[in-house]
Amino acid sequence: MRKALIIWISSVLAAANVWAAEVGNSGLPIPRFVSLKNEETNVRTGPGTRYPIAWIYRRENLPVEVVEEFDHWRKIKDVEGASGWVHKMMLDGSRYVMITGTEPCLMLSAAETNARPLLKAKPGVIASVVECERAWCRLQVEGRKGWVEKKRIWGVYPDEVFD
Fold this sequence. Notes:
The protein contains 1 helix and 14 strands. The protein is mainly beta.
């Protein structure tokens, strides 16, 4: 009986550890995409003001990925893979993406490769996400909306679908 109880407790603890790895102390999933709330955001080397500022982002709405949480601090990663800690108040759940690659990206009238082009977005442009389908996302840039293939943007997961 005691051996069965120990095995059961071990399996419960293992399940709890799996859950903790997928959900942060905020109750939100890890990893997840968010955006920077302010024009300037300090990124620290650790989760607290006692840690030095490593660099400062100077771009509002920049998409970042939350990869870890500690109390009120979030470890984020950017499009280039750089990571550091920011206070949760510096982040917003609004979804933005960045156009990637080296060539301008066509935003199209429909989620089809042969759809009518609406505008070109240069690499580095930040756009708000309106909705995402399996392989495409509808984005908004300066009031204009269009569809872009997911492979041309950073800030949504390949299997993510939402509206």
